[in-house]
Input
Amino acid sequence: MEQVFEAIVAEVVEGRLKSQDRLIQEDIASQLGVSRQPVQQALLLLRAEGFVQEAPGRGLIVAPIDLKFVQDVYEVRSVTEGLACRLAAERGAEQARREGPALMKAGRFAEAEGSIPMLIDADMRFHKFLYEISGNRVIKETTAPHWRHLQRIMAEVLMRDESPQQIWDQHEQIMEAIARGDPKAAERAAKQHIMKAADRYMARLRSMEQADVPASDIAVKKGKTRRQQS
Output
C-alpha cells in the first residue's frame, strides 16, 4: 500500500495527475500492476492527508491546492524553521561545516540544470538536514506530515519562477550562519527565507487562481533544463 501511495503522490507532485482529475481505482491498479485493495487503502489515506477529495457525481478527484492551508503551513514554518536553525547553530555547527558543503553543491547543481525534481529533492534534503542537526526530534516529527504538500507547492511555483538562484543564496546564508555557530544570525536568516518563500508562493498561486489556470496543468518535466524549455 505504501508504494501505491507514494506512486500516486509522485503523479500529483510532478503534474501528471492534475487538479480535479478523477481517480479511478481500476485504472490506477492496472497502471501500477496491483490489485484494487492497496489502491483503495492508498486513496483513503490520500483523502485524509488532503491530496484527494470527493466530488459530487465524480467520485474521488485530485484536490486543488488550498491557499489558506499554504498560508497556515508557512506561518508555522517561519517559527519552527527559525528555532531549528538557532538550535542547529548551537548544537550542530561542526556537522554543518562537515556536511553542509555537499548539500550546497547539490543545490547549486540542480539550480544550474533547471531540473524541478532535482531542485525539490535538494531543497528537502537541505531543510531536513537542519532539523536533524538541531537535535530537536519534535521539530522533525511535527513538520514531516507537510513535506509532500510542500513538494507539490514548490513544483507548481518553480515551473513559473524565473530562477531558483535566490532560494539557494538564502540557503547559503543560513548554512554559513549555522556553520560559524551564530544562533541569532541563523534564526534571522531562516525566518526571512521562509517569509520570502511564503510571499512568493502565495503571490504565484493567487495569480494562477485569478487567471483560472489550474497550477497542476503545468507538467513537471524530469531532467529538462530551462535552456531546453526556452
User: Anything to note?
Assistant: Residues 183-210 form the longest helix (28 residues). The two ends are 39 Å apart (CA to CA). The beta strands are 52-55, 59-62. The CA atoms of residues 84 and 136 lie 8 Å apart.
